[in-house]
Specification:
CATH class: Mainly Beta
Bound molecules: calcium ion
CATH topology: Jelly Rolls
Strand order of the largest sheet: 1-11-3-8
Number of strands: 11
Radius of gyration: 22 Å
Number of helices: 1
Largest sheet: 4 strands, antiparallel
């Protein structure tokens, strides 16, 4: 009888160990994506974010993209004078939204936050809709979802 119980006790120990260590084995998704300046929106990650999900975005500030005669970083650096995709944020800055119906938000060279809606993270240059044709260059962006 004693020999029968040992494997059962071992199984309980193994299951308990897996349950106790599971929180330490969280998946960390790090994706490096290309954001083309000429696209009005492009999907940045394959992961679908849910409301409240944390994520961060980082862009090396030595990278530049252009719109017409303007050249600058993901922070943009000039005020708006037209009907931009994200009113209130600097022109030609990096902006994002969660899902195609999500509210656009400013990212710049660094962003940390939580998803306000459900969907895939999409990124874009903050330009006037219909004025993306004269944009050149891409930004390489690192997206981390802990
Ligand atoms: Ca433009």
């Amino acid at each position: 009888m004693g020999r029968v119980r040992k494997p059962a006790a071992l199984a309980v120990f193994v299951v308990a160990t897996l349950v106790l260590t599971a929180p330490c084995m969280k998946t960390l998704l790090v994706e490096t994506v290309n954001v083309p300046s000429h696209a009005e929106w492009s999907a940045a990650t394959t992961a679908v974010l849910t409301p409240g999900a944390a994520f961060s975005i980082e862009v090396d500030s030595t990278q530049h993209w252009t719109s017409g005669s303007w050249t600058g970083t993901a922070d943009g650096d000039i005020p708006q004078w037209g009907d931009y995709t994200l009113p209130g944020a600097t022109a030609y800055s990096l902006i994002g939204r969660i899902g195609s119906d999500g509210e656009p938000f400013f990212i710049g060279t660094r962003y940390e936050g939580v998803a306000a809606s459900n969907g895939v993270l999409e990124l874009a240059m903050n330009d006037v809709p219909g004025e993306y044709r004269d944009n050149r260059g891409d930004l390489t962006v690192v997206v981390t979802i802990p």
